[in-house]
Amino acid sequence: MARMVLKLASLAAATSGIYLYGNKFLDPNDFGVVRVGRAIATTAVITYDYLTSLRSVPYGSEEYDFLKSQVHLRSAERLRELCCANRGTFIKVGQHLGALDYLLPEEYTRTLKVLHSQAPQSTRQEIEQVIREDLGKEIKELFLSFEDTPLGAASLAQVHKAVLQDGRTVAVKIQHPKVQAQSSKDILLMEVLLLVVKQIFPDFEFMWLVEEAKKNLPLELDFLNEGRNAEKVAHMLKNFDFLKVPRIYWELSTRRVLLMEFMEGGQVNDRAYMERNGINVNEISRNLGRLYSEMIFVNGFVHCDPHPGNVLVKKCPASGKAHIILLDHGLYQVLSESFRMDYCRLWQALIKADMKRVQKYSRRLGAGDLYPLFACMLTARSWESVNRGIDRLPVSASEDVEIRSNAAAYLPQITRLLNNVPRQMLLLLKTNDLLRGIESALHTRASASSFLNMSRCCIRAVSTYQRSNSHSLYRRAQISLTEALSLWQINLYELFLWLKGSQLGNWVIALLSWMHHST
């Protein structure tokens, strides 16, 4: 009897499975038991691999390091497969991990980076359903034309090019229909699994990742919030004539549908595109640095997802100027004034190689005794380079390899540090790594001009803060004078660097040398 019941149960399960996979209206990923089972199984296999593969190998030996790298790679591939299968929130979190180039082992970041190009696409029927539910009309009633193939698909949404009835070309961002319902359950599942893993590996401190997802995902799923962010940053940075932010069409926007002005260009890390179109690579890198220094140090309102697909460049045919187009405004970090001031002063100390102040402000930002590691994480430079001054020498290939190797060697300390620093710091670290990735692709990493722009913004931010907290007219005038002198010194140094690297500068140096030898 029991055997008969077992056979019937097996047959029913098999038939159900065939029906689910064969039915185009039902997706097994929509069923919680499938998603939960897959996540539990993947976590169990990864945990077992780490527990058993390194058990009998002497810690610190060459064999240990080799095997650990292999386990990292296998685990990263399993994690990537899980993210691709469960989609939505899992891909979003995987993309976040893949962006932490100098904070996680290279095996993880290299493997998870591909998630930016492997996001799922919603079908035409699903897109029509979302537009019908949110806008109350069919696609053909709203648009003269609507391209079926998306311009880009991400973990939470995809973007289509369309033409409105009045002839305006627009970009239509449409949320994947199932993400909203699945996101809260997915985050709870991740939290439970990470707590279990922490019981097995006490040094595993990745709860900050779940906390960030809990806080940020609801904001990213609200496209009206994204529209408001776009308008705010466009107004905030209106003095930068090179920056373009797509206009929002509010009359056709909802929490799941966002209509924007259509803008196109090459990705900001595509050096070949810039060279083909006569765009100055150094100018783009410099302007991107100015943009982010202004957001971080002066305004405290930071676009935290500057991966290359969200930052485009285009040369204006009329003016010949190169524009930076900033897309995807769903994820911003608002910095408190006290945090922003400590962060400003820390970067000033790092640029000046003032180790006492580096220690002081790192501790104030939660780094504690791990402040040397914190300084290396922020700058992606070795401790030796931090001590010598990060603006003195460019990053060498050997130093870059050293930093990436240390990410694996110091993983427990890094995760502990990420658990201790203010939550505002986490997205800034991700943003730093994404910007460094762009600079590396453009071969402009750690240029002197980027540090000069940061210094200017830090001086302006600290001076503005000091003036706002001073009640003495004399003291405010003194602060303004000090600010002007500091900025003048930076301008003078920048002129010196320009002369040093220019043909005119070489002529002046040659003339002075000739005059010196003549006398």
Written description of the protein model:
Keywords: Kinase, Signal, Transferase. Residues 145-474 form the Protein kinase domain. This is AarF domain-containing protein kinase 1. Helix content is 63%, strand content 9%. The protein is α+β, with helices and mostly antiparallel strands and 519 residues long. The strands form 3 sheets. Strands 1, 2, 3, 4 and 6 form a 5-stranded antiparallel beta sheet that branches. Strands 5-10-9-7 form a 4-stranded mixed beta sheet, covered by helices on one side. It has a two-stranded antiparallel ribbon with strand order 8-11. A hairpin with a 4-residue loop joins strand 3 (157-164) and strand 4 (169-175). The longest helix has 29 residues, at 473-501. The chain is globular, with a radius of gyration of 26 Å. The termini are far apart.
Low-confidence stretches: 1-26
Shape label: globular
Overall structural class, as computed from helix and strand content, comes to alpha+beta
Strand proportion:
5-15%
Helix content: 55-70%
Q: What is the rounded Rg?
A: 26 Å
What is the arithmetic mean of pLDDT? 85
- What is the overall number of helices? 22
Distance between the termini: 113 Å
List how many beta strands DSSP finds.
11
Task: Characterize the biggest β-sheet.
Answer: 5 strands, antiparallel
Could you provide a short overview of the structure?
With about 525 residues, the chain is of the alpha+beta class. It has 22 helices and 11 strands.
